[in-house]
Design a protein that fits this description.
- 91% of the residues lie in helices and 0% in strands.
- The protein has helices spanning 2-29, 34-42, 44-68, 70-80, 84-93, 97-132, 135-181.
- Helix 1 packs across helix 3 (44-68) and helix 5 (84-93) crosses helix 6.
- By secondary structure, it is mostly helical.
- 25% of the residues are buried.
Amino acid sequence: METTKLYVEYIIVGMETLAVIMLILFIAIGDNFLQDIIYITENIVPSIIMTGVCYILGLIVDRMADIFFEKRKNLIKEKYRTAAQTSIIVWEHYKQDTFATFTLSRIRLMRSTVLNSMLLVVFGPIAAWKYYESAKIAILFAVGFALVLIGSNKAHKNLLETYYKKTLKLEKSYLDEKCESN
């Protein structure tokens, strides 16, 4: 079940990335490729292939996001100073491992959404300008994607803080229990 969740996670991130790629294509060559997209969505075999492409894109972007946000993660992790070896045991001991897995999943999704949003802030308004030829709509796209970027970035940071803060709290309780039993 966990493997399936991870697979779906990568597909979601890949679909976000595919939207960015589609915007770039639209800017570069116009809407000539839209008939191909319609064909893909209406036929099962190309749809399955595109799902695989989204998975691969998601995997690549997730790795890039992991590298991009490594410093933030380490700073937050250092702030709470948890023992890496005991954190998994602690989450399982308090039967909170499902919550931990869910939180880590949301962390991965948010960090990838931040990267994709950065690109959408740039290419979304350009595509809007090209299609609508309106500065107002281009600005609306820029503001909308900037809000997604700000929100996903804040959510990513808050999720990391919450995860490590809770890990530290559970770890302290776990170690206190071990000391009391000895």
